[in-house]
């Protein structure tokens, strides 16, 4: 077992260790014989650590409210959710799939992270198990009043059937069903199964009965293997001719397509079209996450071109405003899509963190060499009662230069700052406990960005202690706009 893997396992245990330490305190007293509203109020007042410290038995239905809270509360550790699913299935003489679908519908509407976690747990169930509950899943897909439940149920139905036919037939006969099914496709883990939807989904990318269906089709089509070139072509047209939400969704979807699958002949025209898009955008709107994402795509595209084609594009973008770097999280990989990027010393910069994962992540920039110290300090902090708080897993340290608080799944946040005046390699990291051993990168501060671009020198991996040049940087240079 490698040293790095051992460290990773240890750090991943930190949240559980912290919970265990807190659990040494006497568990709070909860009166489960009161009416449901009072029981719910009592449980709501507890922290997650207090909640999981409560006495409970899957053999006694009176403990059901505790298991419900463990399953639907934001930020509860996965092992407790697994325990809760099994217990509820026992209490209700039910099945984990049914319990998970029921739980998704109970989650707080403002909580975007937990439904994704529960959907991931649902789709991790064996296809045979989902098949046994097919009738219930089908009913929820067609009749549930919750969009979240419908999306998860359609995805589960696809996995249960092993093909898209029946799910598509049901969705087509239900009001809003196609949009719900399309929204569920990207969470299906079987890539081949996702790809089988392409012939049905691709026509809806350019022409759909309504905007919600079109947007869902755009988001889904970028996740379908074996059809990347066709999808890229359709999405490129929407970037150049579309506007608003349609254009933004097309940009996000293109960035989900592996760059080695982009059609070479379409790369430069799309990059130039994005340059024009930025030129036509008022200067005071060029730091929005939407324009930032477009500029990042242009630079990703430029990274696939020869230097003589790429450098003029990057130079034009940089002249148009502040430097914007868009960093995405990779779903279920606990990684950023960008391992390093460069900024010019003393110049304004903006980082946009787009969280495409199923759990919250943040981004913290530290002094050179301080990443591990800051991340380990964060890992020893007590679990926060509110993951949205700016202080959640954010240690008070002079070695933290800049920081974004936890970004919820499907959301993005921007960090505006002036780059350090001293050139060097400044690490950035997710400080959620245990994440830092995989989820990190380096912001290279240089005195001359143009010179760096002509001869980019990969920085040192702060964990492996060797240059990044043996690993692909998904957004080499990640350059955009510089005053």
Fraction of residues in H or I helices = 40-55%
The share of residues in extended strands comes to 5-15%
- Strand order of the biggest β-sheet: 3-9-8-5-6
Largest sheet: 5 strands, mixed
Low-confidence stretches: 7-23, 475-483
- The gross shape turns out to be globular
How widely separated are the two ends?
Answer: 48 Å
Q: What is the count of β-strands?
A: 9
Mean pLDDT comes to 88
Pairing-aware structural class of the strands and helices? alpha+beta
Radius of gyration: 24 Å
Individual helix count: 23
How would you describe what is shown here?
- With 483 residues, this protein is an alpha+beta fold.
- Helices cover 49% and strands 12% of the residues.
- It has helices at 3-12, 14-23, 36-44, 48-53, 64-72, 78-91, 96-106, 113-123, 127-132, 134-143, 147-161, 165-172, 177-184, 191-195, 198-206, 211-221, 228-241, 244-256, 264-279, 289-302, 307-319, 371-379, 449-454, and strands at 323-330, 335-336, 340-344, 348-354, 361-366, 400-407, 412-418, 424-429, 440-446.
- The protein has a five-stranded mixed β-sheet with strand order 3-9-8-5-6, covered by helices on one side. A four-stranded mixed β-sheet has the order 2-1-4-7.
- A hairpin with a 4-residue loop joins strand 1 (323-330) and strand 2.
- Helix 11 packs across helix 13 (177-184) and helix 16 packs parallel to helix 18.
- The longest helix is centred in the middle third of the chain and has 16 residues, at 264-279.
- It is globular and about 70 Å long.
């Amino acid at each position: 077992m490698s040293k790095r893997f051992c460290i990773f396992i240890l750090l991943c245990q930190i949240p559980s260790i912290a919970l265990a330490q807190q659990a040494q305190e006497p568990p709070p007293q909860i009166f489960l014989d009161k009416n449901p509203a009072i029981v719910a109020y009592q449980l709501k007042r507890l922290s997650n650590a207090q909640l999981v410290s409560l006495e409970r038995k899957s053999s006694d239905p009176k403990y059901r409210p505790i298991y419900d809270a463990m399953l639907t509360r934001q930020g509860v550790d996965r092992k407790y959710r697994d325990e809760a699913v099994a217990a509820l299935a026992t209490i209700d003489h039910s099945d984990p799939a049914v319990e998970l679908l029921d739980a998704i519908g109970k989650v707080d509407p403002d909580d975007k992270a937990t439904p994704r976690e529960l959907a991931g747990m649902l789709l991790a169930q064996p296809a045979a198990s989902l098949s046994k509950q097919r009738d219930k899943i089908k009913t929820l897909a067609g009749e549930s009043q919750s969009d979240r439940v419908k999306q998860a149920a359609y995805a589960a139905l696809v996995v249960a059937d092993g093909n898209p036919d029946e799910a598509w037939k049901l969705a087509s006969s239900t009001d809003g069903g196609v949009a719900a099914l399309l929204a569920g496709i990207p969470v299906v883990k079987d890539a081949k199964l996702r790809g089988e939807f392409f012939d049905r989904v691709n026509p809806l990318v350019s022409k759909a009965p309504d905007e919600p269906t079109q947007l869902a089709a755009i988001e889904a089509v970028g996740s379908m293997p074996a059809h990347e070139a066709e999808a890229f072509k359709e999405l490129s047209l929407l970037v150049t001719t579309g506007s608003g939400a349609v254009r933004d969704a097309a940009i996000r979807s293109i960035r989900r397509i592996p760059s080695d699958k982009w059609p070479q002949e379409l790369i430069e025209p799309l990059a130039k079209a994005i340059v024009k898009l930025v030129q036509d955008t008022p200067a005071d709107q060029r730091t929005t996450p939407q324009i930032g994402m477009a500029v990042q795509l242009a630079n990703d595209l430029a990274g696939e071109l020869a230097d003589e084609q790429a450098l003029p594009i990057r130079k034009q973008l940089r002249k148009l405003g502040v430097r914007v770097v868009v960093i995405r999280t990779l779903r279920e990989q606990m990684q950023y899509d960008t391992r390093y990027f460069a900024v010019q010393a003393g110049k304004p910069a903006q980082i946009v963190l787009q969280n495409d994962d199923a759990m919250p992540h943040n981004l913290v920039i530290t002094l050179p060499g301080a990443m591990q110290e800051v991340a380990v300090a964060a890992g020893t902090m007590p679990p926060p009662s509110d993951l949205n708080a700016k202080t959640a897993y954010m240690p008070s340290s002079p070695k933290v230069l800049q920081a974004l608080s936890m970004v919820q799944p499907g959301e993005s946040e921007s960090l505006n700052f002036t780059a350090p005046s001293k050139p060097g390699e400044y690490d950035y990291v997710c400080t959620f406990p245990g994440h830092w051993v995989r989820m990190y990168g380096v912001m290279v501060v240089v005195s001359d960005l143009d010179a760096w671009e002509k001869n980019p020198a990969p920085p040192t991996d702060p964990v492996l202690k060797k240059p990044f040049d043996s690993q692909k940087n998904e957004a080499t240079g990640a350059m955009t706009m510089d005053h």
